[in-house]
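Run folding on both entries below.
>entry_1
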Amino acid sequence: LQLVESGGGLVQPGGSLRLSCAASGSTLDNYAIGWFRQVPGKAREGVSCISISDGSTNYADSVKGRFTISRDKAKNTVYLQMNSLKPEDTAVYYCGATSRPRMPTIEILCVSPRQYDNWGQGTQVTVYS
C-alpha cells in the first residue's frame, strides 16, 4: 500500500484547506486511516482517524468542529477538510494506514502513530496572518 498526501498550502487564519490521502496498491476497505501532524522538535500528533470497515471516526479536541474526515471509495482516497484554520494548525500533515486482525480502538488509532504501518510523505500546511 502506498499513500500520497496532497492539498497543503498557505492560508490565512479562518481559511480552509482540503487534504487528500490517495492510496494505491490495495483498497482501503479493511484499513484504518489516520491523519497526524508534526512540527519540528515535537512528536507526531494525532488529528483525526477513520475506520473504513465500520465508518467510525474520531478527532483530537483541538480540531473538533473544524475538521472533517471522509472517504471516497471510488477514488480510494481519504480526505481531511480543514475549516476555520488557526496558526497553531501549522504543521506537516501525514496520513497513515493500518490493517490488522485485531484493530485497536478508534481512540487509540487517533493518538498513536505506532499503530500505523504505512505513511505518506507529508504535506505542509501553513496558517499565517
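>entry_2
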Amino acid sequence: QVQLVESGGGLVQAGGSLRLSCAASGIIVARNTMAWYRQAPGKQRELVAGITASGTTTYTDSVKGRFTISRDNAKNMLYLQMNSLRPEDTGVYYCNGGGSLWGQGTQVTISA
C-alpha cells in the first residue's frame, strides 16, 4: 500500500522553528520527485518546496532562506526544516509523492 504520513506540526511563536517529517511506504523517496505543499485557511494549496530524484531542490519565494527540504534515503523519509517562522506560514502542510499521492496533512500554526 502506498502511503505518506506527515508529522511534526504544532503551535509555535513567530521566529521559532519546526521540522516536519513524512514517512513514505510503497514509494521510494529517493527515486521520486517529492514535495511539501501547504494550504492556508481560505486559500488554495500551494507548493512550498520540492526535491527531485537527483537532489535538485526548489522553493517558493516566500520561504527561500528559511526552509530546507531534505530526505533520508535509508529511512525513506522526507523532511522540511522550517526556521524563522512567520504567522503567514500557518496552514496545513502536506507531503506529496507526485500526482495524486498525498499525505493526510499536519497543522502548523504560528502565533504573532
